[in-house]
Amino acid sequence: MVDPVDGCRDGVDCSSKCVKPSETTLPRHLLELPDLDPGIFLSCHRAGLDRNFPASTLVYTAIPALNGISLALDRFLDDLQKQRDLVEPRLCLGASAWEASHDLLRSALRTGLIPSINSMAVMGVVSLPGMMTGQILAGVNPGEAVRYQMVIVFMITAAATLGTVIVLLLAFRMLFSARHQLLLNRLSAKKD
Amino acid sequence: MVSYWKQGNANEPDGVQTMMKSSFILETQELGRRLENRWIWKDLNLKVEAGSRIVLKGPTGSGKTLLLRVLAGLENPDHGKVFFQDRDQNQWKMPEYRTQVALLPQRPAFQEGSVEQNWRMPFDFRERSNQHFDSSRFKPWLEMLELSTDFARKQTAELSGGERQLAALLRMLQFDPHLLLLDEPASALDESKSKKMEELLNDWQKQVPGRTWIWVSHDSRQAERVGDEVLELGAVS
Fold it and tell me: Domains of chain B (ranges plus CATH)?
């Protein structure tokens, strides 16, 4: 496999160095995202990256982020149900929905980030990430492979954080009305 | 069915009646609430005058707690409207509304920490940012309830059910709400403490004209002591 970074540069013909979709065994439409914003492809090209970079990045970041999102959402919903007796008295004392539940949101966010932070804590010491190992075995300079891996790890953590925050805010909006009421019946209605 | 009468005139006819002619602090118009396709109560037309003491009675499952929750704005009615100080509840900013209409739940919960930390907690809310905690207000209340001054330093995890009710009541009273919605506030108290709590609330109510409460109670003797009027919700058919 050709190192895509060494390939594409502005004004340089990169056709011989970039990995071409046709050279892989997977169907072309699975490897490319032709409908994506052309700006993304241009950025990838300028950064010297393969045009499949958005697709692979999405896969690399979305799956680990999903773990964090699921954990955080589960924790938030569970806490709201168990601590309803704590949240509603705060509302009764004049708290806004945010004031009544922000500690639960914070705790859920922390739970959602545990997998990413744990994975970062042991990476390279206990576990050897697959991409980095693969690159080293393929002959890439180890220092460069490690730098790539760090970028990937930070991307995963950022995606997990962003995804968790967005999902928690959506859950918050769904479970509290504009009149600062806790709408737990929406959860039980879904179960029915 | 909803019955309403004044204490001492128990023979007044059933049906919802208008209480007084003067200004009302709380009013409901054709209020109704359904649970699982049946009306728990409906066409509830209440007019609560400022300064009145109302006892809410009814058999288990008649929707007393639900009514208090609707009046506190924690739940929406399925029909009708609630007016507080001549303003539709929907037009109020709810945190502001709830600083004036305070609901005390039957089993209050507390955050970890001391009782005093929990009394201070509401001052962190934006709606109360211009208010300040005054520990001296609690001293006469604690004396009246025969609780030691160490009560404020007790950890909430160590409180009994009755002590929790008292601590929650004092936390609410420090803000002097216009309308108190008390959901069996003495259910975990022995008779002596319960009477002391009633005295405290009666004193608090008399201090400033216009302080009002709706008190849910199953105890008819207590109802006589703490209520001038009785609102009875009928059994759900």
Answer: 2-110+176-196+208-233 (3.40.50.300)
Q: Specify whether the CB–CB gap between B158 and B191 falls below 8 A.
A: no
B128: chain A residues, CB-CB within 8 Å: 93-94
Q: What is the pLDDT of residue A50?
A: 61
Q: For residues A116 and A160, what is the distance between their CA atoms, to the nearest angstrom?
A: 7
Per residue in B144-187, pLDDT tens? 999 998 999 999 999 999 999 999 999 999 999 999 999 999 99
Paired tokens of A24:
């892989």
Please tell me the distance from the alpha carbon of residue B229 to that of residue B8, in angstroms, as a whole number. 9
DSSP state letter for B145:
T
**Cβ contacts of A107 on chain B, cutoff 8 Å:** none
Domain ranges of chain A: 1-51, 56-191
Residue B70 near residue B40, CB atoms below 8 Å: no
The whole-chain average pLDDT of chain B stands at 88
CA angle B221, A85, A167 (to 5 degrees): 155
Return d(Cα B77, Cα B62) in angstroms, integer. Answer: 15
Residue A15 has pLDDT above 90, yes or no: no
Determine the distance in angstroms separating the CA of B96 from the nearest CA of chain A, rounded to an integer.
Answer: 6
- Is A99 near chain B, with CB under 8 Å? yes
Most trustworthy range by pLDDT among A3-12, A16-25, B8-17, B94-103: B94-103
For residue B189 the two structure tokens come to 């108290």
Cβ separation of B73 and A181 shorter than 8 Å? yes
Nearest to B213 by CA among B59, B102, B81, B47: B102
